[in-house]
Amino acid sequence: MPLALWALTLSAFAIGTTEFVIVGLIPTIAASLQVSLPSAGLLVSLYALGVAIGAPVLTALSSRLPRKPLLLGLMALFTVGNLVAWQAPGYQALMAARVLTGLAHGVFFSIGATIATSLVAKDKAASAIALMFSGLTVALVSGVPLGTWIGQHFGWQNTFLAVSLLGVIAFVGSLLLIPRNIATPAAGGLLTQLAVLGRPRLLLVYAMTALGYGGSFVAFTYLAPILQQVSGYAPSSVGLVMLVYGVSVAFGNIWGGRLADRHGPVRALQIIFLLLALVLLVLTFTASSPWLVLLTVLAWGAVAFGNVAGLQVYVVQQAERETPHAVDVASGLNIAAFNVGIAGGAWGGGLIVSKLGLLATPWIGALVVLGAVGLTSWSGRLDRRAGIGPRPLASSPRGH
């Protein structure tokens, strides 16, 4: 794999770290800025909304720009956003910084796959994309726990300073290693995206994505307060629990991909969503025990992101039938759906915490995920009614 691909992977690592590290720092930020836990949780929602807007809208608006200057501009915007968070004098400034970095995130992953595949031979395209997206997994395993530790020992502001330094390194790496002659793909305008949103079968998959991730983030956004206030963990130990979660996510991604490969995306999604709902329900009862909650978090990580491969390949399979001229647009809109779910889940979790308390978030999150199970089963029935059999992951040329 060319060195330029590692520059993209480092960028993905930095972006993944800044997206999820906030979860481990919510109690610290709430205490520092003297805001409520639900208000601190909105920092997760606002970032995800930035991604959801940035992915489809800004990608379409920037579609004619040369790829390398656009990539460098995104990493510069990402770095500036984290520097603003580092120097944020108050809650409103931190909110603005989160939106800014979320916008950069959305466009980066929309164009990153195209850039990654242009760096390698066609027969290595899937491996190139997998390597780039591994930056997100590594962020959950190492970047988030380390960032949480930095925030709890040296102040949450220094976490954003550390991430901005990663952004500078990624910018320099891209400047030196990414070639200038990357082809600019044909523009996919906003009208094309609106056409995709007019397809009910694609909207059904987007709803599955949003509910599945929304339910998980109802509780995940408030994992650190649960660990500290209910389970009895010291703030300094939260980073270690996040490490356990991240390692489990890494294995869960592999397992989820293999499950979708073996049984097709619909069956795999049914299994993973059901397990996710079960784990969230169990968390309601294990949260008060330090050891049992650790085992529950371990199980949670194994299923939390294991549905990514199935959801992405399923939306591509539907798009190949519904909108064959806009498969990439349909896939990009599913990334937006992920983040709409995260934004809604974090916002809804805040309402639940303020009205019912922290321990209501897991079981209500489980009910939301069960909604995703229902939609997945409905979509599978519609497939069978239309004479479409389950297709494994490997059958789709875009199922990376």
Class from secondary-structure proportions: mainly alpha
Instruction: Report the major sheet.
Output: none
Number of strands: 0
Gap between N and C termini? 16 Å
Task: Summarize the SSE layout with pairings.
Blueprint: H1 3-33, H2 37-61, H3 67-86, H4 91-118, H5 125-154, H6 156-177, H7 190-196, H8 200-220, H9 223-229, H10 235-263, H11 265-286, H12 290-304, H13 308-322, H14 327-355, H15 360-385
Helix pairs in contact: 1-2, 1-4, 1-5, 1-6, 2-4, 2-14, 3-4, 3-6, 4-5, 5-6, 5-10, 8-11, 8-13, 8-14, 8-15, 10-11, 10-12, 11-12, 11-13, 11-15, 13-14
Describe the structure in brief.
The protein is mostly helical and 400 residues long. The protein contains 15 helices and no strands.
Walkthrough of the structure:
The chain has 400 residues and is mainly alpha-helical. Helices cover 82% and strands 0% of the residues. It contains 15 helices and no strands. Helix 1 (3-33) packs antiparallel against helix 6. The protein starts with a helix and ends in a 15-residue tail after the last helix. The relative contact order is 0.15. Residues 393-400 have low confidence and may be disordered.
